[in-house]
């Protein structure tokens, strides 16, 4: 109890000690970060942020193989980029971030994801492409030929750089042309159909698209490939020209071919239409040439293309007097040249028009001093624009000027147009106190021509309160005595300084919330730290306090320093032992090695907390040693269970004293209980050194247990049954031909009967002598054993059975459902006899599914012929779902064996594993249920029946859906009425069993009497092929209102409802039916007699039949237990009340008569028992008198006072405490004297005597109730047997103890 109170006292101290420091933790979002790929080296990447409930100073860090990318400021958590990022080299990686306070470090992994995709996939050949193909009827281009190949390149790595080609559109778009071409993954365009110049088209244009999976940040760039057909007509196409191409430059040559035979007319070429007239012309040779200067920038809204309609006209009219001409459109794409340099504009995208009015070279912005890195300059709207295309329009951005080191520009590379931001790069250089205005130059340089433009940016700095109060040190270590007085000064020398002046330089001191704020306080003006509550300064509760001292200036800027306050210790705590010590070891082999766990809450490293361990004196201390410093308890030698007092049950209790070395010395005791477990340390011993037995060959015997060969006998010296129980086993050559059966004789003896099994016989020719080894061992698997040699001599009989070749019985595999035919295996047999006639016989066929016997299902699948060949008989009947393993049990028979000898070999098993295919329909599981419908109780959508089904197939083939195919109602007169939509079924499943719940759609007609036959279909849902199904029919019995029974109760309706479950259970027990309670109502007060309420119910058997009121009454009266329980629950009338009155009166009369007879029997039994007890008491008094007289004669001394039987008071002055009478009332007239011997009890109550002087009680010795009392010795013979002892002077106390004189039974 003392230890319990001590634990309760120390628990709060331990909780406070454990809660003295809590580990810091990162914020929840410190798991991943996304960084832009163009983040410059030295720029701020992100911050590490953590929280510490103790407000301890935190130190941040980063480690891992990829940590070299970053630099971490330990005291702030700022992370800057130390090495440039490259998405194409490593687009994501992990680093380990850590945070620690002075006591604990916490780490976690962070995912770093590099920003956008910066490479867009492009066709390597981006110009307009021209090709020609021949008509399909010519053999030069058959179907499947490669028309052209394109290649798109994406510089991104990994999945983002994988290019996928597709044909988006074919012009002309007809049914024939939709699938005329296809494109392969490598960019090759394949002709998939035949071409026809006359019947289809002479011109095809294909629009291609190349896509990559990483194109979220840049759109997919489509490329169009026009394809023209060259036939007996005109071939024209697309061409390309450079911007600014000189006049007269040849662009494209077109040619028209006249299909007429003979001499062709000359052809005149002309440009009949153009989207930009005058830019091109065509000569008589069909060459299209540039007619003037080209400007691509004028064609931006027309996709940089010029459309020309070229017409070819014959010189003469045709035979119809008409001009023979043909026209086609030619597309000329104008390519870009680098003829512009980037310019600066004061506008915001996308509203910029890039007019000369918007162009500007001077810009102004504003920013706060010491703004964080990558903070943009406010009020700066700058856009750089280069109208050139592609690389010609790509420009680089950089900073110059006197203050360029403090800022950076973003982006550093752009194409076409881009919004420019000037960002703070080095916060320390943006200092209002150093300069109020800073100037930088933004330089935009063309990446190809290196032409550049410069814009001047004037940045005005906004002043802020940027100086904080600072302490000289970040940590102050202070010391204060434990339990110091309130108001004691801890320190008055800590002061902060602030470079600001005026109100911003005024400093106020405060302690931030945290552990210890309630114990210490600070003066807000002077900063002096004092003790706030000295009574709570307990070093054992908390030895060190960490306070945060904050200094705040007038601008609400603050800084803090850490105060580490140590409390000085005194010795005021006794050692504390952790846990309890209960050790179990085995005798002889087990070793005790346990360390007593103790600690002292006083200051570590001092005598106050140094612990010493010692053993207090005890009877078994000499068997153990205890290290005084470590508390390690060991045994000095093997422990012997037999050496321990048996009354201890093998338990040794050692008391360990744990004391400290302080002044004064404080100590604690703890008990160590060691239970030595008994082991089996004695080996069995045989009664002979060896045994020799003889047995005939081929003589298994007629006994069902086999032929007995001989008996061995052994004895174990251990005393407990668990350790001296002997079992026998056989080993040695041929041991498998024999069996040995043990028989326990008791007291450690056992016999082993060596037998031949009934189905085993010996062969002299094979082995004439068997040298066996019989082992006698205890059940302990770790125990040793004793062996004896047993020699079995076989008497010769002329016999040799054949044997099966084990190799031929190796298992085979056969597929189900007719997959295999013919011979599948051959069983081989041999016989040592020279003249043999062997045949293989099929003994048995075992059919199993998942290890369970399925009967004779597979008996006809396979056959075995006499030469051992195994054939498939019924290939299509083989079914894996019915049987997955067929075991053919075969044997070899020697037809030439002499009569009287074994002609058969041992049975062998050929395992045939059946391989599975999908071929099973669903099947319904049997239901041991009867479904009954009481129409007035059944509600819509309430289950009235259920079915369960399974499908041995797996996956979708095993999923089952239920449906109701048909509902028929069969009335009691046999008429059948079909119903539609009266029931519906819901589906559910658990494991591989599917359940269908049948529920009515609407309320059922209560006038119908008969059976609903519901046909349910289970259908599987295979992924491929037709579904399989199974049907079953359920019978739903209806119970009409004629079976409605009424029970009346003497209690109100509310109490009947509260007792509904108990009433239901009693009725169910009495009737063995299912009780359906319909209604519970109060009876009209005018009609009441004894009943106040009634309960209407149906009593239905599983077969659908129900009880009538008369049958119910008979069954309840036959079950008295249920009847009494119902009467207690208030049942007064079963049916009508009038019929129950007379029965109740007769029952009450019978009960009263029965109670009277029982009372009479009790009185007779008590009278008889009293008389018997009285006679027994008189008999005991007479025995007492005889014993007294015998003692007088033996001792030769007359007692001076009588002894009162059954007590330990034996003089005339004291009354009998058992009877509360004086001794004269007992009628013991023979008692006339007493002496000192009378003061000693002469009965068995000595250990249970009553001491009237001390008025105290002692507990009697417990005797188990099942232990029979010892018989009383005959008094006179006992006294006379001790006469010699009395004569020799050795008589002490009473001469005998007679339990028969114990008067407690009076």
UniProtKB/TrEMBL annotation:
Residues 1-20 form the signal peptide. Residues 1295-1306 have a biased composition (Polar residues). GO terms for biological process: cell migration; cell-cell adhesion mediated by cadherin; epithelial cell differentiation; homophilic cell adhesion via plasma membrane adhesion molecules; intermicrovillar adhesion; negative regulation of cell growth involved in contact inhibition; regulation of microvillus length. The chain crosses the membrane at residues 1148-1173. Residues 27-141, 142-210, 248-344, 359-471, 472-577, 577-686, 687-804, 806-924, 926-1054 form the Cadherin domain. GO terms for molecular function: beta-catenin binding; cadherin binding; calcium ion binding. It comes from Macaca nemestrina (Pig-tailed macaque). Residues 1251-1264 have a biased composition (Basic and acidic residues). This is Cadherin-related family member 2. InterPro entries: Cadherin, Cadherin-like_dom, Cadherin-like_sf, Cadherin_CS. Intermicrovillar adhesion molecule that forms, via its extracellular domain, calcium-dependent heterophilic complexes with CDHR5 on adjacent microvilli. Thereby, controls the packing of microvilli at the apical membrane of epithelial cells. Through its cytoplasmic domain, interacts with microvillus cytoplasmic proteins to form the intermicrovillar adhesion complex/IMAC. This complex plays a central role in microvilli and epithelial brush border differentiation. May also play a role in cell-cell adhesion and contact inhibition in epithelial cells. It is found in: Apical cell membrane; Cell junction; Cell projection, Microvillus membrane. Part of the IMAC/intermicrovillar adhesion complex/intermicrovillar tip-link complex composed of ANKS4B, MYO7B, USH1C, CDHR2 and CDHR5. Interacts with MAST2. Interacts (via cytoplasmic domain) with USH1C and MYO7B; required for proper localization of CDHR2 to microvilli tips and its function in brush border differentiation. Residues 1248-1306 are annotated as: Disordered. GO terms for cellular component: anchoring junction; brush border membrane; catenin complex; microvillus membrane.
